[in-house]
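Lab notebook, bench 4. Still working through the backlog of constructs that have no structural model yet. Next entry is a single chain of 126 residues. Request: give me the structure tokens for it.
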Amino acid sequence: MPVIDATTVQPVLSGALDAVKVHFEEAVDYARHNGLLAEVTRQNGELVLRLKRPSDGAPCHYRIVALPGGGQVLHEKCYGAETERLEAAPDSVNQTVVETELASFFIRSAALPLDYIAQRHQPGFI
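Model written out:
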């Protein structure tokens, strides 16, 4: 297995972010269809989905970005004042991990299950 250092993470992550952006956009469309305010942005080496909670209007986000100096990426989920951080290998930016993280993010931030994701996976996925 090749060693991935900080100088190679950004190009690898950039391509992976481009590949999984479609899943963020799909989640934003689903959120909007269900009456939520949501948007996705891709800039400066990060991918961010922002969502407003219907209960209290607290801003929430799920962000993927490279961590400096470590050859790792950060999956960060923020729910108003509370933040969850998962540091992982760059190969964690893939459909399965991103869909899992999106599903848990939407359940926690808006109590909205992403049913379309559950339909693509085996029972018990989410």
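Notes after review: Residues 53 and 109 are 6 Å apart (CA to CA). Residues 1-7 have pLDDT under 50 and may be disordered. Flag for follow-up if needed.
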